[in-house]
Amino acid sequence: MSDPESFRAEVRDWLEANCPPEMRQPVRDEEDVYWGGRNASFKNDAQKAWFEACRDKGYTVPEWPKEYGGAGLTPAEGKILRQEMASIGARPPLSSFGIWMLGPALLHFGTEGQKRRFLNEIARGEIRWCQGYSEPGSGSDLVSMQTYGEDKGDHWIVNGQKIWTSYADEADWIFCLVRTDKQNKYQGITFMLFDMANEGVSTKPIKLISGNSPFCETFMDDVKVPKSYGEDIPGYVGEINRGWDVAKYLLGHEREMISATGGGDRASSLGAATSRQGELDPVLRAEMAMFDVDALSFTAMSEKFMDELKVNKGHPAQPNMLKYAGTELNKRRHELLMAAGGSRALEWESEETSGGKTARSWLRTKANSIEGGTSEVMLNVISKRILDLPGA
Amino acid sequence: MPLYHDEDQAMLAETAEQFMAEQGGIQKQLRHWRDRNCKDGFGHELWKQFAEMGFTGILVGEDHGGLDMGHVEAGIVLEEIGRNLTPSPFLSSSVLAATALQHGSDDVKTRWLPDMVAGEKVYAVAIDEGPKHRPERIACKAEKSGNGFRLSGKKDFVVYGASAEMIVVAARTSGSDSDEDGVTLFAVPQDANGMSHDSVRLVDSSMASHITFDGVELDGDAVIGEVDGGRSVLNAMLTAGRVGAAAEGVGVARGAMDMTVDYLKQRKQFGKLIGEFQALQHRAAHLYSEVEIARAVTIKAAQLLDGESEKAELMASVAKAKVAKAAGLAVREGVQMHGGIGMTDEYDIGLYMKRDRALQEFLGDQYYHANRVAELSGY
Predict the structure, then answer these.
(1) Which residue in B9, B289, B290 has the most chain A C-beta atoms within 10 A of its own C-beta, making it the best mutation to test that interface?
(2) Average pLDDT value for residue range B52-74
(3) Is residue B319 part of a domain?
(4) Which CATH class is domain A4-95?
(5) Could you report the predicted ipTM of this complex, rounded to two decimals?
(6) Residues of A with CB below 8 A from B264's CB?
């Protein structure tokens, strides 16, 4: 690695020259997030300029190798870049499930051909991916999933239904768990990759208790999925019938990500923020204080977890604990925000509440302890893998 | 600084763990002294061994025989004390009194520190006046008298006070009871005329004194730090003590939790190990989360204190409150999951519940500290 301080200076200069002032404002709404993909459009020139500068520098995925569209930064350099971006409030230039989920899976399980094609497409924001995991009958018990791919030699014919596929209606491609062996529960699933434009794929958005959502149902009706997209580019990740390994790896990765970010903005005191809008009832103030105790403590836990992760200390199942504690904490936070907000917080559509933001966020957080593994599943995992309790 | 123990600290933890398990265990210390109705409530021989191990001087500078280490290291020893319920004047002497004395003149340090480091003497601290921790209010008076002071008033919850060769007393030298200024700390020797102890055994078998000062005459050199400017020393002492008490509480919580998780793997009912029941598994897993988080924030607070961060005071209160919540949960779940046997004196889990209760009160409970977190955060 280069000298850290000279790298930091270099990054600072580059950000100064390339990150437009508009891109240093907090993200206010969905339009402020750039997801890329075939049908993507930029909200304004600043968003376009910032994305293109990062893309050309490899900074959409700074720590991926250069040949796959990244900047080949070491973890230490990546950390410096993140710190410098955070210090000027720079928005992420590109958000995508390709970066967060498929990318890590391909880096770990993909062939060279897959990495060269798909990682570059992700890094350059050309293809927007969605994730097909859950099914109506398979939530926590994901491995019971039924979507089936019938082997037709050089391709599969896939039939079934996925649910909770975020942004399926806007995505170009899907990475999808498909059963390819009905006799074998765990070793009968293949991690397939295919184009959402294929005949037989359709999507339907899901409205939540919080209102519109990115979630969709995705239907597959005789969809033809090729086993290969060219030399060394299989249409699946890992091996046929071993997709569960990939899925498990990604779930672990996802929980780690949630662990690192979960729990919302914990650095600032909730009680201090809410008391600025009016005096808190004494009992509510007391609850806020207890919340702040838990939130500040959890922040220390997250820090400890991240520090230990870097040196491979700590129990490998620890992300499950952080996911559990962090999401439960965030739900509590939003309950308290509703209580502090009073009748104003009940407003569902008014301009003053930016369209009922407080109430909608409160309801949305109820999913935190469901998505990515329910709190109950997390507690099962802690019982089994950390506490080693019998029969867990 | 990464938020885990570095190599030296990990080695100290290993040493402390082994030492405390061998020498400070429940049978050998807590039950031993309790069952003999020992008026000290702890073993002087063990205190000597603490000195041989270097523990007594962890926070004391090398000039006075100490190791000049930090609060992370003190916390490591305290966590093992907590795990083994080891009765010891360590927190009072080597953390609280030591922190106060470090702010004293060279004469004060030389007079008191080396004997404590050598394990020859133990010290106590007298802060509370009344059954709850309210250090903002100091009414105990020290009036100018000749070249020294005359001390009058009462102090409560002076842990191991009757056994202490010296007691650090927070007294008012000017102003009214709740003034920030006008507080002075004194090192009051055991044989001071006019000091009387009402020493009582507490629920956890430790001993604590109600002390009455009836015109106790003190020399000017009994003053620790500045006359009327003792609040900053008192605060430093309290912050150190709270982080230390939190570390001991983490040990209590872990000890109770480990015992309980073990029990879930042994006890059979309905033809099954009770640890197979999901109702208990989830409670145990939740408890694990809380204890891990409490431990993380305690190490964080100790690191901030060692780094002289301005956030140390806030995080000391966060840690003290969080540990109280987690350790309270650990001992309650511990007794409940043990069932009937958990209620017997013969079984150790109840001893954890008793120690936790006393530690909760010491230097402020979770309600006191949550309120303090709110105040320090500006609401």
Answers:
(1) B289
(2) 97
(3) yes
(4) mainly alpha
(5) 0.95
(6) 389-390
How many angstroms separate the Cα of A169 from the Cα of each of A94, A193, A213? 18, 16, 11
**Chain B residue whose CA is closest to A297:** B297
What residues 169-198 of chain B have any CB closer than 8 A to a CB of chain A?
Answer: none
CA distances from B118 to B48, B63, B224, B324, B344 (A): 7, 13, 21, 32, 39
CATH number of residue B297's parent domain: 1.20.140.10
User: Are residues B105 and B193 both part of a single domain?
Assistant: no
**How many other β-carbons are positioned within 10 Å of the β-carbon of residue A15?**
19
Residue B1 in any domain: the answer is no
- Does residue B289 sit at the A interface (CB-CB below 8 Å)? yes
Question: What sign does the dihedral B104-B105-B108-B112 (CA atoms) show?
Answer: positive
A contacts of B289 (beta carbons < 8 Å): 321, 324-325, 382
Alpha helices in chain A (DSSP H): 4-18, 45-57, 75-88, 97, 103-109, 112-114, 120-123, 243-261, 270-275, 282-310, 318-341, 357-365, 375-381
Give pLDDT tens digits along chain A (392 positions): 568 899 999 999 999 999 999 999 988 888 899 999 999 999 999 999 999 999 999 999 999 999 999 999 998 899 899 989 999 999 999 999 999 999 999 999 999 999 999 999 999 999 999 999 999 999 999 999 999 999 999 999 999 999 999 999 999 999 999 999 999 999 999 999 999 999 999 999 999 999 999 999 999 999 999 999 999 999 999 999 999 999 989 887 777 676 655 444 456 799 999 999 889 999 999 999 999 999 999 999 999 998 898 888 889 899 999 999 999 999 999 999 999 999 999 999 999 998 999 999 999 999 999 998 899 999 999 999 999 999 86
Instruction: Mark yes or no for CB contact B276/A389 under 8 Å.
Output: yes
Task: Tell me if B25 is assigned to some domain.
Answer: yes
Predicted confidence (pLDDT) per residue in B186-202, tens digit: 999 999 999 999 999 99
Q: Measured between CB atoms, which of A285, A311, A378 is closest to B374? A: A285
The active-site residue, picked from A254, A256, A287, A328, is: A254
What is the pLDDT, as a whole number, of residue A266?
52
Could you say which of B276, B285, B297 has the minimum Cβ distance to residue A296? B297
Q: With CA atoms as reference, report the closest residue to B128 among B150, B109, B154.
A: B154
- B273 and A391 within 8 Å at the Cβ level: the answer is yes
- Classify A202 as helix, strand or coil: strand
Q: Please tell me whether residues B205 and B240 are part of one structural domain.
A: no
How far away is chain A from the Cα of B365, in angstroms, using its nearest Cα?
Answer: 12
A383:B282 CB<8 A: yes
Nearest CA in chain A to B286: A379
Class of domain A129-242: mainly beta
For A307, the closest of B4, B297, B366 (CB atoms) is B4
Domain-wise residue ranges, chain A: 4-95, 129-242, 262-386
Phi-psi region of B215 (alpha: psi -120 to 50; beta: other; left: phi over 0): left
The rounded distance, in Å, linking the Cα atoms of A148 and A241 is: 12
Number of domains making up chain B? 3
Confidence (pLDDT) at A309: 84
| B281 shares contact with chain A (CB less than 8 Å) | yes
Helix axes B312-338, B278-306, angle to 10 degrees: 160
Is A335 annotated in the active site? no
Evaluate whether the domain defined by A262-386 bears CATH number 1.10.10.10.
no
Q: Are B268 and B355 in the same domain? A: yes
B84 and B175 both lie in a single domain: no
Best A275, A288, A296, A312 member to test B by mutation, with max B CBs in 10 Å, is A296
Model pTM? 0.92
For B370, the closest of A290, A311, A392 (CB atoms) is A290
Single residue among B122, B146, B161 that ends a domain in this structure: B122
Dmax (CA) of chain A: 70
Q: Residues B195, B141: one domain?
A: yes
Instruction: Provide the pLDDT for residue A27.
Output: 87
